[in-house]
Design the sequence.
């Protein structure tokens, strides 16, 4: 089901970038849970456009209205539907190129799939704007997980050629994750922030864009979550992660570095420390056999550079003619910073579903 | 659903390594399809253990019996159930350590999930042996896809520190994939085979194991397959890929290399060549917006070193005592070669489901 | 999934009777389909309250707004979300009895399920008002089915003790179904209409309510739709039918009369008439083995009397005290006439899903 | 998914009447549950053919083998697959008529659906024999439910024109249900048994068959189970009930009698008796708004007469020729008695899934 995901909690999204509005229906929330709406707004502001020269100039406050499932400040247990109206569409930015397929975008593949009937204004249903309802759902999810002491945090581990430190995978303090949640440009080493931003601005000034890597951790997950085979925790998480536009790779724990490791190094030795079962290393990122082992959940995602660039490119139009295109409009030179809360959000959505 | 996967075709697996048998029910196959059973056996032999010094000494012929859904050499359209009996179990190999959690295995996480009631002989339901039914299903899937001219092939791109060339992502000839399907140790450059095997044997002689990377391609996929968001082709494929024991990373096209790329390089320029829409590069691995664009589908998976090693390790037993363990029994020093047909198989299963 | 239904087309509903609005997301519609909005409004008017002395005095125009999935008069192929704002809530009608469980309603069962946190104003999420989005979805479905010449029509077969004729199950003319779709009080024999209405008004004047039976037919369904066992067409249809509040029985073809029949009578003899395979009778209601046989689909549903009555009843309040209740507010003395378009709608939804 | 059903527990069936075997995979059972295998055999014997002159002469012991998910007498928590081999096939009985569509059977609808490739020997996948795995799953389900004190029992309420008493819907004693479970020909009033059996034998001697009604009850279900709308308990239960071959109608509580009732009679008055919330009547069959209210769950199913009769009938063969058919082979003159444990079984399966 392309617009609905989840087994215990079901999330159904809808909307297009320049339509009347976008939204999400969340079914399966426990009744009587007091949602902190300000906290949702804060999370949505982390993702919202127009806040810095590092991001697109389109400003959307991303104010949401809850239509159902929420009475007197508490969930009812019936489906919660929240809608974000689109206010600052500038479709004229796109109209001129309605018929030219933007390289790196879903324009051509979407055209074929929908026989040319999909809404292409601003990317339509494929727009990164659709991640706003995911952040909303994730913000509720995070609040529910906090009740069980489960914390999620993500940081920018790489922008272009600029790398920042990774998590200490064995011990991650709650304060570290909390701080990442509050940082506008979340990096583990603050000294690297400026270097990364410079990298983005330099791409921007060249009319270009740049990619990066986000690393995420979740702590205090009890051991025993997830399933063998088709519903491994890795399967569940990546199913959602690869829903986020622009993500092209996911690795857990040591990930691709496992290729070079020996078993004697890769295996995380197990020990009992005062009644708590731990591992001395955490190369497996907290998951063994698709199931949590109580160690921090750790994974990284690769995000490709925003395909919208102000540089002339070769493409084809809907008549099949070979043409040139310069993608106008407002867009992000690097989507990575705004993707951080989105990755956190879907992580919360996934964990909530398997809990 | 942990044991059932798929929307148009549903696959349901069952079984344990040392139980009576393992199997799969495939529901949704078209009626009247003539299955080539010898071709299934050939695929299963590619995965089967005991064929070379590179793999475990457990020999299982992996002969299968079709119980239903198949009459007079053709599918009926009703559920096809195939069973592989377990013949060569040596549970004594494992008994001595029944109570010690093997590092890197699902022993501890499974123990918590199933309250200690899961079958732990030979890894039980977590065993790599459960990939045999997947190969069977994939072998049927490959035959169905071949009717639409869709070909799938995978090769070992890395073992430990030994790398082999990657696919030319823009043009992949059918003959290249066909050859990989017939190669016992599938590598794109035959000169590197010995080096890789040496790497495995050297780990084996040290009682250790080693990991690697498998690269997969599928060609002749029509444009327009897949969905935006929750059922992106990446989501669907990785959901299955992360079901395979030992896989810890998946990347499509340029994958993690996207992090360092500029949009002007990462974007695949589009052009029309004699009525066929192509891209000059294929950094996106054939998928844009979760939907195929007609270029070859390309992805790589990282496989961790087999956790079963003949080296003493620290661990905990089911009473919570800190103890030492040496994992006896027969096991693979490197699972990568035997995982090649498994990765191909789940690729076929996934493509069949979205077609 | 309680709020989401469907395999090829997914319907997700949300909302409460007295909340901000109710709505539905429809995912899986074909792209480029021209929806006749006036036709949707017409169907919704058939269900809407406040149109006659036979129904509740609450007037809701049930105007809908499409938020997504619909551009330039045509479907885009991405999720279509339509919302109906609640305008004429009179929650004061209900407040006095907030704590008394109305007999025959979901008040007590819902209270237990949601720990008392569900929205109880006007029945909340349990309200018959939630059938408005179903009618909207069904209206789109009917238009899509019409393209394949499939027609659906329902009529009131019984109100209280007043019975009307049933369909001729072997031959149903399209004009008969079309006329039922346009009738305000759909009965096969117009001479019985007044008698039925009298039955309703007499219950109303006594502060009481009355139940009934609706019979539905769908014609021109091709043979071969549906599945054996878990997705028999009967299973699929009744799953949706029993979602409609107040429905307590469903029977196909001869239904409960089969109990008294011999096989030699019950079996529908098959014959070939000018190349079309037909049956001489249609006791099976167009379904054999869960699969259509090309004959008209025929089923009947039993609808219980509206539980909201102006007669004092024994009940319990949320403190567990035995108390008396008189249900105030505006309500229907008989829900059957307004349920006719709802039954047609879910029939269209179900057929569309299996087509 | 036609061969897989369930959300928390997933059941996947496979097999054909005259193939190698039939079976079921049950995924989601709790680990460590001690299954009483003798109890399963007893339930299967209740359904098995060949035990009396009232049933088909085909004798199948219906012995089952558990392939997985069960070690040392206890469930492991991983998928349990059980297989029943087919031993007493007499396909010759059917061969002569391979090409003639049996009236009242799925022969024609199945032929169209599967393009003539489905296994038609003995009804193939459509055979009532496929209910054996359902009884097996239900027998496990009943044992699990018994732990929560939930009891299920069904009885023959009608055979042809012979009616037996219905349940007292307000108070059903556990002993009554237990006794029904142990009765070969389960009827609430033993004096009616002979009359019913006479009715069956008289149909048999005429080469004909007869239908009936089964009534089922489940007691001690906690209030609050089920969901509003798409997963109402009625929806869930009937989805499974209409999977059973031959069932053509389902009604809950007063069912079709609701049509004639007034709200003041139909509403079940609520009262608190020593801290237990009850209703004075139980016309709603224990379900309000799709959710249990703690009263006994009560429903009735209508079963059509076995379509296999020894009387010549008009039909069409696969070439489209109008021909006559006499269905040879061994078959039941009335499927109702053997359907009793099947109805109980799917009731257990459904309740287990929503618990």
Sequence:
């Amino acid at each position: 089901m392309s617009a609905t995901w989840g087994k215990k909690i079901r999330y159904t999204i809808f909307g297009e970038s320049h339509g009347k509005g976008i939204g999400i229906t969340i079914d399966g929330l426990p009744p009587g849970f007091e949602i902190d709406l300000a906290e949702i707004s804060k999370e949505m502001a982390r993702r919202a456009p127009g806040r810095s020269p590092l991001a697109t100039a389109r400003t959307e406050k991303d104010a949401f209205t809850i239509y159902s499932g929420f009475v007197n400040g508490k969930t009812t247990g019936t489906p919660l539907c929240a809608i974000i109206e689109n206010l600052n569409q500038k479709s004229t930015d796109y109209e001129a190129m309605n018929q030219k397929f933007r390289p790196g975008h879903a324009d051509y593949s979407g055209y074929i799939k929908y026989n040319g009937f999909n809404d292409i204004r601003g990317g339509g249903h494929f727009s990164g704007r659709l991640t706003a309802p995911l952040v909303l759902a994730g913000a509720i999810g995070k609040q529910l997980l906090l009740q069980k002491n489960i914390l999620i945090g993500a940081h920018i581990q790489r922008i272009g050629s600029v790398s920042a430190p990774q998590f200490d995978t064995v011990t991650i303090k709650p304060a570290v994750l909390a701080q990442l949640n509050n940082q506008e440009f979340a990096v583990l080493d603050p000294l690297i922030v400026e270097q990364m931003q410079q990298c983005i601005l330099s791409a921007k000034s060249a009319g270009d864009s740049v990619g990066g890597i986000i690393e995420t951790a979740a702590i205090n997950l009890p051991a025993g979550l997830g399933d063998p085979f088709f519903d491994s925790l890795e399967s569940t998480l990546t199913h959602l992660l690869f829903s986020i536009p622009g993500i092209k790779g996911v690795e857990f724990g040591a990930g691709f570095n496992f290729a070079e490791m020996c078993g004697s190094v890769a295996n995380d030795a197990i020990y009992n420390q005062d009644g708590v079962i731990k591992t001395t290393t955490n190369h497996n990122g907290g998951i063994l056999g698709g199931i949590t082992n109580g160690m921090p959940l750790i994974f990284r995602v690769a995000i490709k550079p925003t395909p919208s660039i102000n540089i002339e490119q070769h493409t084809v139009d809907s008549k099949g003619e070979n043409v040139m295109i310069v993608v106008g409009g407002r867009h992000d030179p690097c989507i990575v910073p705004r993707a951080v809360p989105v990755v956190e959000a879907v992580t919360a959505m996934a964990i909530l579903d398997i809990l």
Summary: The interface with chain D takes residues 7, 78, 228 of chain A (CB under 8 Å). The two ends of chain A are 21 Å apart (CA to CA).
